[in-house]
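Handoff note, outgoing to incoming analyst
You'll be picking up this chain. Sequence as last confirmed:
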Amino acid sequence: MLEFPFAEVPAAGELIQVAEGVHWLRMPLPMALDHINLYLIEDEDGWWVIDSGMDVGPTRDHWEQIFEHHLQGKPVKAVVATHWHPDHTGLAGWLCDRWRVPFYATQGEYLTGLVFFRASSDDFGWTNEQHQLRSGRGQAGIESSRKNMGGMRHITHPLPTSYRRLEEGTRLTIKGRTWRVVIGKGHSPEHACLYCESLNVLISGDQVIPRITSNISVSGHEPEGNPLKAWLASLEHFLEVLPADALVLPAHNTPFFGLHARLRYLIEHHEDHLIALEEACLAQPSSAVELLPVLFQRELDEQHIGLAVGECIAHLNYLYHRGQLERHVDEQGCFRYRSVDDTLPLRLRKQRHRAETSEPIQV
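Most recent structure output, in case you need it:
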């Protein structure tokens, strides 16, 4: 069971202290998920900023309010990105330039962010067209995806022109405390979380969120990728190297206790999706678009369908690479998937029995 120790959330431009020297703030997002949690860590001679928010709306004004009222006369001394997504790096370049401070990120996140920031619709290419056809989205998917390529520029200040590399096990010393980098993969290439043993606090970014599941997606830049395999391995890694009773500071929703319970829930969540897809592909060969209702019961609008298709393909690629699905290309250039596992009905019965007899995780 998860526990949420903070009844209130930070108002715009304000901070809530969640551990000694660690402060929680929020910035708005122009989407259904309307906020991102950011964190400030106090050092002897300044502040470390963890993630930045998008370069949209009043976000810069909120930052200026924090600079004026909450830094106790000390400057920002470093900016850290958990990963490249624009809600996490949209103002990283602006913050680094404003304070003339270094930018910390993993190599995978920094280089991926540069690629996507610099891309435009002219870079769409035939491989992205083919990926949309293979998914079953057809010409409408091609046009929508082409239009969206390059959209990051509208919500992201140019990224810093250099960075300091974070790796698994990198240690940052902040006000005498050690923050250790723990890498997760799957949601993004090389997502950096920060764990402080003396505070027993984990800044988890999008790698562990309490009430929503992170998008695990395949896109046209790596159509044969297997991010779900990396994601599940990362969750198992976190179970091994992080304590169950850590205070988790996520990028969305609110801080919580119950890390191991949440990790196990996420693993089971994706295992259930894999089995459901494998079962759906027993009846007849199906495309990724046709299989969306297996994973998503709600109606998907244009804002969400691209991510939903990417997530479905991530699960299908996982099963395909494990040899549990086969696929062929139909007359429209679309992949159609079929289950090849004769033991599936028995495994499904065992899975359902386990679900019916085990105590559910409450979130």
